[in-house]
Design brief:
five-stranded mixed beta barrel, nine-stranded mixed β-sheet, 26 helices, Heterokaryon incompatibility protein-domain-containing protein
């Protein structure tokens, strides 16, 4: 088409969708109302450079329209390209022009939902309506097409990720095995390892991975990622990142953690029965995706409302039942029975208001959470999202999280086995800018000891133990604690806050079915990790070295492992990967053109119990097999692959991975934290800027104790420093102690 012909075409005129406004504050609020959207029908073209032609249709989500949703980064708002539609034109960005040309088919029409085209960007009312239902739109899409971008060596990088996700590397659950797998695949697709590492780093630095709004777009189970001229499924990408994460290579940990979080969030929608009624609340999601960027600071909250199960908003997290979405059943439009909502009975109304001051939005959100939640969960986030205490001004309210700030540490949020504050007797009282909560003064900080490895913003190797040996030696590992436990047992749990950040234990804690007993799993993990810390510390026992001894050699360590083998692990396997029977023997590497067949990881915390279930089923099988390994568990090879011909799973030595696993959890727990002791002799960990004289308070209804700093010159006002773990009072023991002062804490 000539330039003159293009100029002569008028701009496309959008017709109103006539969607009505709804308010979550209305008594008759109904999230199941009809909702209209536009779908772009992209015309085919055999030539990549041919002009982009489309038509636009208006459809109702309740009619189950067939379309695919596109997820991409807009880029600079410079509209230099054109999309032609029904004799008119729509100005689009060069990025969207590239996206549409990449997805356009040669002979078939493609039905797409693209926000920049399907939403009238000039109509603020419509834009607000559509954006607030975006999560619902992506969930109704047949699949999500993710455009990551382009760049040097991206094709080789996608090939590398496909290879890393193949069945050949399923046993890469230790750092050593992961490094070996990565180096093997890099030799296949890159000239040298350095080139491969650089390409992977560029891939992880693609801007799509850091956008906040992509979370609700990417958690769909049918997401497909396109980069350069190749593509990769979300399943394969997650497998590859799992292996990258286990290695000792210095890849961008924030992005890998983000991709792993997307995988877990997506699993909630794909397998809701595994998460029960709890699911994920808004605070859990805000913490999990805190590192994501957004242009509008309001969206640090608003962008995630559609994913939460405990809020009621125009971002209603509606999702069709799987059997309805992919079947030909007749569905009555608008029927409440044809939809599933991710909102629990505790549905907190959150009114979206982009015109309000962002500080007021955060404060109103904080009040809503504290008024509606029964365990003061918001306060865990208040300490994690704040400036340093000495930098706080009167504009900073210590009880209101500032979601714009980077997270200082992982808050001890939603831990079901913590109950330090017992029942909540009264709701907090608000008189902005302060908030009053009931509680008791348990103790005072005596000694604060920041973990040196995390000072100065350093990023230590998360698979190596943090420098906590000096704390172990200073306190003495064999003396008794208040609880009657040995100090090595107490320290082992304190350094990881008794598994508070283990999402598998949180998810399974209340389960009790034929495979998983959550409380039994938690008890076994305590035994395992107590002995893991003891075995790590034993070679550097200062008393033994001072007496002329030497560090333990591998034979000494092997003796310790043997001595504690029953406590270290109930079973020998930690690397189970399920495989379908037809792909049982498919172990070779693959590429983007030959994807590996279906296989699925079992989390290592769940694996022993799942394995026991499979073993029980296998023993009940009357069929015979000549493979002696199948019939004699004692003959299983140590620290190497072992294939069971009945189920197709892998056996590995548990102890090496136990140490890595404990180190990972300790690093995650201690980052941004300080070890401390109290005047009464209790030990714990809290925020790294707590100081001697700070108060350890137990707030009524809170799951954990909190560290509070008394405002200078005031007897009644306190700044909230953050949550803490204090061994021996996490189950409500402080509430029964004599001589503990009860009072109201006015948080400012």
């Amino acid at each position: 088409m000539s330039i003159m012909a293009s100029i002569m075409r008028p701009p496309y005129v959008y017709q109103s969708l006539n969607n009505k406004d709804v308010s979550i504050l209305d008594d008759d609020f109904q999230p199941f109302d009809f909702f209209k959207i536009r779908v772009m029908v992209l015309e085919p073209a055999p030539d990549f450079d041919a002009e982009l032609q489309c038509t636009i249709e208006t459809v109702n989500l309740s009619d189950w329209p067939d379309f695919e949703a596109v997820s991409y980064v807009w880029g600079p708002p410079v509209f230099l390209k054109e999309l032609f539609c029904d004799g008119s034109k729509i100005s689009i960005t060069p990025t969207l022009d590239q996206v549409l040309r990449r997805f356009r088919k040669k002979t078939e029409k493609l039905r797409l939902w693209v926000d920049a085209v399907c939403i009238n960007q000039a109509d603020i009312r419509e834009k607000n309506q559509q954006v607030q239902r975006m999560g619902q739109i992506y969930r109704y899409a047949r699949s999500v097409l993710v455009w990551l971008g382009d760049g040097g060596k991206m094709d080789e990088c996608i090939d590398f990720l496909w290879g890393l996700s193949s069945s050949q590397h399923e046993s890469s659950v230790t750092a050593e095995r992961a490094v070996s797998s990565i180096e093997t695949e890099m030799r296949r697709f890159f000239e040298n390892k350095e080139e491969g590492i650089e390409a992977v780093q560029r891939f992880l630095a693609l801007p799509w991975f850091t956008r906040r709004w992509i979370v609700q777009e990417a958690v769909q189970k049918n997401a497909h990622f396109y980069c350069g001229s190749l593509d990769i499924t979300s399943h394969a990408l997650n497998h590859a990142v799992f292996t990258l994460n286990k290695s000792t290579f210095n890849f961008d940990q924030h992005v890998m953690d983000h991709i792993r979080a997307l995988e877990r969030q997506g699993a909630y929608y794909e397998f809701p029965e595994q998460y029960g009624e709890d699911g994920y609340g808004i605070l859990d999601i805000l913490v999990r995706f805190s590192s994501c960027n957004c242009t509008n600071e309001h969206d640090r909250i608003y962008a995630h409302l559609g994913l939460a199960n405990d809020v009621r908003s125009p971002f209603a997290s509606l999702r069709p039942e799987p059997e309805h979405r992919f079947s030909q059943l007749s569905i009555t439009s608008g029927s409440e029975e044809t939809y599933t909502t991710r909102q629990s009975r505790q549905s907190i109304p959150i009114q979206v208001d982009y015109e309000a001051n962002v500080e007021h939005v955060y404060a109103d959100f904080a009040e809503s959470m504290l008024n509606q939640k029964i365990h003061l969960e918001l306060l865990h986030c208040s300490g994690a999202f704040r400036p340093e205490l000495q930098l706080m001004t009167t504009r900073n309210k210590s009880w209101v999280p500032d979601w714009r700030l980077p997270m200082r540490y992982q808050p001890l949020l939603s831990v079901p086995w913590f109950n330090a504050g017992g029942e909540q007797e009264n709701k907090p009282f608000f008189n902005y800018p302060w908030c009053s909560v009931e509680g008791l003064v348990f103790d005072t900080v005596r000694v604060s000891c920041p973990i040196t490895e995390f000072a100065g913003g350093e990023t230590p190797n998360r698979r190596e133990m943090p420098p906590i040996g000096y704390i172990c030696s200073a306190l003495g590992m064999s003396r008794r604690y208040f609880t009657g436990e040995r100090m090595w047992q107490v320290l082992a749990m304190t350094f990881i806050s008794d598994h508070a950040l283990n999402h598998i234990h949180q998810q399974q804690y209340h389960s009790r079915d034929h495979m998983y007993n959550g409380k039994l799993m938690k008890r076994d993990a305590r035994e395992r990790d107590m002995h893991t810390l003891l075995d790590w510390w034993a070679p550097w026992d200062d008393a033994r070295l001072a007496a002329g001894g030497r560090p333990m050699d591998p034979l000494d360590m092997e003796a310790i492992v043997k001595e504690h083998s029953k406590s270290l692990h109930r079973h020998d396997s930690i690397g189970t990967f399920l495989k379908s029977m037809e792909s049982r023997d498919d172990w070779g590497p693959t590429s983007h053109a030959v994807p590996s067949r279906w296989h699925s990881r079992i989390d290592e915390e769940l694996e022993p119990y799942f394995q026991a279930h499979l073993d029980q089923m296998y023993r009940s099988d009357d069929s015979t097999d000549t493979n002696t390994n199948d019939k004699n568990p004692e003959d299983k090879p140590i620290d190497c692959e072992w294939r069971c011909q009945k189920q197709g799973y892998i056996w590995l030595n548990p102890h090496r991975r136990n140490t890595e696993r404990y180190a990972e959890l300790a690093n995650e727990t201690l980052r941004g934290r300080a070890f401390f002791t109290t005047e009464k002799g209790y030990i714990g960990i809290g925020p790294d800027d707590l100081v001697k004289g700070d108060t350890v308070a137990v707030l009524k209804g809170a799951r954990t104790p909190f560290v509070l700093h008394q405002v200078e010159g005031s007897l009644a006002q306190w700044r909230l420093v953050g949550d803490c773990y204090v061994h021996g009072i996490m189950g409500g023991e402080a509430l029964e102690m004599d001589g503990v002062l009860e009072r109201n804490f006015v948080l400012v």
